[in-house]
Design goal:
heterodimer; A: alpha/beta; 8-stranded mixed β-sheet; 13 helices; B: 8 helices; globular
Chain lengths: 476, 235
């Protein structure tokens, strides 16, 4: 039984054609995966299929009369409406006028389906991101949908979260529910995918399951195994390398000096709950690329906030560029990319966005063009950053931090929402940055790029430790 | 977050259906009691907020005392006082500063009373949002307003802490990007526009985006699809 079908569907977005003659059929019990580069329109496609009445499209979108559709968007935090898990799942039932006494069983059943057997009055704020994601799935399952749309779970969830989600999806598929996933890193879901599609230049093309040669489908680990860069990106990197080496940095960096020292410290939430503990002294040297790894919510962001001086709780135990951290103390010497960096965008064009910091720090405006070229974003220079996709906005924010050429670069989850092409470009930029004497710490909720990093700082069971992988330092 | 992952051992124990029914009915009775208390809290906060502009200067002292008790009550309920006090400090600084700028020192006392009244208008709403469950407020408001308006009001209250955190994050990141918005830089009124431009504008963009997502999430879960609306029984 065909539940949903697209026939010759076309959609215009800001006077350009986003989708051209899309054809797709989804039958009961099937799992489809749609991948595509950053900004190709994956999220828009899901929304178009789920809520066609909200779009001005051409062609036909067929919804079977028996179709009951569920949609889980990229960030569960922006979909949560209530405070407790029971009330959140019951929100839809309330809207359908279900009697209060009937709600309890339905809510408990939906929670059991996603393996979230917690008291119904558990506060949502106490759940991990992976649990919140499963909660949003349960909030859809309570209507017993026969088709479930899931938007880019890989970027949001750690490995445990992905494992939990996979279990839920396997169960749903076994009960005849259809699933459509949009994902850059489809390899993680290869065990359940029946049909694999690629959204390319507005067309949807059937593609093979993920392989190492298909740049669209490469997983992060695959890139890591391939010594970080694909052949194309290695060429781009090699071409750019001389330019990078000629960059004049603000000051000569003494390689024997530690740029950042973390003495033993404890990080706690405001309510005194412990987050992480550091028992040994950690140091960041010039040329280092450090990976800070840990599950969702383990305290990576809290640590970054303390390093840059946003949070002064451990000010005496941290030394950044020889000083105790304080907001605004370092000027252009420290670059920090926050999570969801699209929040910082406010200018009318991408170029202006980059030039903002350059003007404030009195740096050459030509840095903007240089970084946009390195990241292959020059064609977007005159575009509004506010009309771009999640991944593109992420890149613009990253470019605005890179262009000030700081001594220390702190990147909180810099690879979220990036396709493999941009992923490799960002890595090339970071490598060049380290080669020129800069030091980088990037965070991720799964260990990645172990071939690239010179040190790995791992947060496990509330302990922050330095791990020795077969790592190589970037030679200076 | 391993320590936050509530373990499955945390889940409900095996209980006989009779005991389960009794416990459930007890919880439903408790929820109803809480609902009545919430309704009283809403009326109390509306009366107090309105009084802030209606009472005479002499009666302001009494009102301040009541609000102080509410502040302490909210603090005991784990509400964060620091952001609120910061907001009051900024608001006082701007209001008194503007009075001083336009009218000189003569009307500073008047400015102080204006500031106190504004604080007394805002504080009861903050107390309500800090001590009452959003779902309960929504349930009470549904008795007086349409479901849509009750949803809009309670969602707006619920996202207040989120907005505060977003504003704080955006402020910090723009400071790190070199924006002239540090407390010292803001002593110069020429830099105030920069605060609007690089903190307020992105915050508004985030709010628009969040409201769009919440609206989509609610619509997708059949919000407004039927006239009949029921309520989750456990609060």
């Amino acid at each position: 039984m065909t539940l949903l079908a697209l026939h010759q569907v076309e959609l215009q977005h800001q006077s350009t054609s986003l989708f051209k003659q899309l054809n797709l059929q989804i039958a009961a019990g099937e799992c489809h995966c749609i991948c595509g580069v950053t900004g190709s329109g994956k999220t828009t496609l899901l929304q178009l299929m789920a809520m066609p009445s909200q779009f001005n499209y051409q062609g036909q979108i067929y919804h079977n009369q028996e179709l009951r559709l569920g949609l889980v968007m990229q960030d569960p935090n922006v979909q949560i409406i209530r405070e407790t898990i029971g009330a959140e799942i019951a929100f839809g039932l309330e809207n359908l006028g279900y009697p209060a006494v009937n709600m309890l069983n339905l809510v408990e059943k939906a929670l059991a389906q996603v393996g979230l057997t917690l008291p119904l009055d558990t506060l949502i704020s106490h759940l991990s991101l992976g649990q919140k994601y499963r909660l949003m799935v349960a909030a859809q399952l309570v209507f017993e949908p026969n088709l479930l749309f899931i938007d880019e779970p890989w970027a949001q969830l750690d490995n445990q979260g992905i494992k939990e989600l996979l279990n839920v999806l396997e169960y749903l598929l076994s009960t005849g529910v259809s699933v459509v996933i949009t994902e850059h890193h489809s390899a993680a879901f290869s065990s359940i995918i029946n049909f694999h599609w690629r959204l390319d230049k507005g067309a949807i093309i059937s593609s093979t399951m993920p392989t190492l040669d298909d740049s669209c489908d490469l997983s992060i680990q695959d890139i890591s195994r391939q010594a970080v860069l694909t052949a194309d990106d290695r060429r781009v990197y090699d071409q750019q390398k001389p330019a990078a080496q000629s960059v004049v940095y603000q000051a000569e960096i003494d390689k024997s000096l530690s740029l950042l020292t973390l003495s033993p410290l404890n990080i706690q939430f405001n309510d005194q709950r412990p987050v992480l503990q550091l028992k040994e002294t950690l140091a960041l040297m010039a040329g280092d690329i450090v990976g800070l790894f840990g599950e969702n919510g383990c305290g990576k962001t809290s640590l970054f906030n303390q390093i840059v001086g946003v949070d002064l709780a451990n000010q005496t135990r941290i030394s950044l560029l020889g000083k105790a951290p304080k907001l605004g103390l370092y000027g252009a010497e420290v670059g920090f990319l926050m999570q969801r960096p699209s929040r910082q965008l406010f200018e009318m064009t991408v170029r202006q966005e980059l030039e903002f910091s350059l003007k404030r720090f009195g740096l050459p405006l030509s840095n903007a063009t240089e970084v946009l070229t390195q990241l292959d974003l020059l064609h977007l220079a005159s575009h509004s950053p506010h009309k771009m996709s999640y991944g593109q906005q992420h890149l613009i924010a990253l470019a605005s931090v890179l262009c000030i050429k700081p001594k220390v670069l702190l990147l909180d989850d810099p690879f979220a929402g990036l396709d493999n092409q941009y992923f490799a470009r960002v890595i090339a930029c970071l490598t060049q940055f380290a080669l020129a004497g800069g030091a980088v710490i990037f965070s991720s909720h799964r260990p990645i790029l172990l071939d690239l990093v010179s040190k790995s700082w791992l947060i496990d069971q509330q302990q922050l430790t330095e791990q020795c992988f077969a790592a190589k330092a970037v030679s200076l | 977050m391993s320590w936050l992952r509530l373990s499955h051992s945390h889940s409900r124990e095996v209980i006989s259906p009779a005991v389960q029914d009794k416990s459930l009915s007890d919880r439903m009775v408790k929820s109803k009691k809480k609902l009545v208390l919430c309704a009283l809290a809403i009326i109390f906060s509306i009366v107090l907020s309105s009084s802030a502009f209606l009472v005479t200067r002499q009666q302001l002292g009494l009102l301040l005392l009541i609000n102080l008790v509410m502040l302490i009550h909210a603090w005991f309920q784990q509400a964060k006082l620091a952001p609120l006090l910061k907001l009051f400090a900024i608001q006082s600084f701007i209001t008194i500063g503007l009075y001083f700028l336009f009218y000189g020192s003569e009307r500073v006392i008047e400015a102080v009373f204006v500031v106190i009244r504004i604080i007394l208008v805002m504080l009861p709403s903050w107390w309500l949002a800090s001590t009452q469950n959003g779902h309960q407020i929504s349930q009470v408001l549904c008795l007086l307003l349409s479901t849509k308006w009750a949803f809009v009001i309670t969602t707006s209250i619920k996202i207040l802490p989120f907005i505060t955190q977003e504003a704080r994050d955006i402020y910090h990141i723009q400071c790190l990007r070199g924006a002239r918005i540090t407390p010292k830089a803001l002593l110069n009124p020429l830099n105030w526009y920069e605060l609007v431009q690089c903190v307020l504008f992105p915050l508004l963009i985030q709010l628009l985006s969040l409201s769009k997502h919440i609206a989509r999430s609610a619509n997708q879960r059949h919000f407004g699809s039927t006239a009949k609306h029921t309520h989750w029984p456990l609060n």
